[in-house]
Specification:
Number of helices: 7
Shape: globular
Strand order of the largest sheet: 4-3-5-6-7-8-9-10
Mean pLDDT: 94
Number of domains: 2
Structural class: alpha+beta
CATH class of the largest domain: Alpha Beta
CATH architecture of the largest domain: 2-Layer Sandwich
Radius of gyration: 17 Å
Strand content: 25-35%
Order of helices and strands: HEEHEEEHEEEEEEHEHEHEHE
CATH topology of the largest domain: Fructose-1,6-Bisphosphatase, Chain A, domain 1
């Protein structure tokens, strides 16, 4: 946790001013900043020093080291927000054994929050235990639907229309990791995205499970290397949202 928070402090120090447009596009709405690379290099170096036998995988550099355990890092998730001086971004850090997430930390420095969990050890926010919401009625729920440039806009709109037809409120916050941990904290009842990458969700997968949320099997069908769709939700909504168009069922 301390390492992710130090990385968050580094990101804060490099954050562009609001309106400055401090990022560059890697693809349609796929932003990167100098801080993305700098934070990833910092985390890679610190983890190599502390755990020299472990592997490392980052969004910007891919898998740079192999090992029985590997650290999976998104140096800044929510870069589109960060590049404009926004507050909704985070550092996501997970430790995995093969395809099994063991530890997850999500540090959101501008929001002054850190969420973390370890397998069979519970989930926490700033030192307080967290649990997913007890919502059971979709018409009383809030669902965030993340947008992915890898799937047609029509498919995204279909998911949004289904959520609205259920009577749920709809959000889009620009950070998949934070959207998922908001489900774990109970601030919203669901998060869905048609395609998302491992580094965006690895930490959140542990946090969701330990907070009692239901989450789809992201690692199925080679999700670790190719990415996958994801649905995470309050346990009482898993049945209602088991058939969202184009998405796997939360279990």
């Amino acid at each position: 946790m301390d390492l992710a928070e130090r990385a968050g402090e580094m990101a804060m120090a490099m954050r562009p001013l609001p309106g400055s447009g401090g990022g560059k596009l890697k693809g349609p709405q796929d932003w990167v900043t100098e801080a993305d690379r700098a934070v990833e290099e910092f985390l890679s170096g610190e983890l190599a020093a502390a755990f020299p036998e472990d592997g490392f995988q980052g969004e910007e550099g891919g898998i740079s080291r192999g090992g029985a355990l590997r650290w999976v890092v998104d140096p800044i998730d929510g870069t589109s927000n960060y590049a404009r001086g926004g507050a909704r971004f985070c550092v996501s850090l997970a430790c995995m054994e093969g395809d099994t997430p063991l530890i997850g930390v999500v540090a959101a420095p501008a929001l002054r929050e850190s969420m973390w969990a370890w397998r069979d050890g519970g989930a926490w926010r700033n030192g307080d235990r967290i649990r997913a919401a007890e919502t059971t009625d979709p018409s009383q729920a809030i669902m965030e639907v993340g947008w992915s440039r890898r799937r047609p806009n029509a498919e995204y709109i279909a998911v949004c229309q289904r959520v609205l037809a259920d009577g749920a409120g709809l959000r889009q916050g620009g950070s998949g990791a934070l959207g998922l941990v908001d489900v774990a904290v109970g601030r919203q009842d669901g998060y869905a995205e048609l395609h998302i990458n491992l580094w965006d969700v690895a930490a959140a997968l542990v946090i969701l499970r330990e907070a009692g949320a239901k989450v789809s099997d992201f690692l199925a069908n080679d999700g670790a290397t190719k990415g996958n769709g994801i649905v995470g939700c309050a346990p009482g909504l898993a049945a209602a949202w088991s058939d969202l168009p184009g998405l796997p069922a939360p279990v």
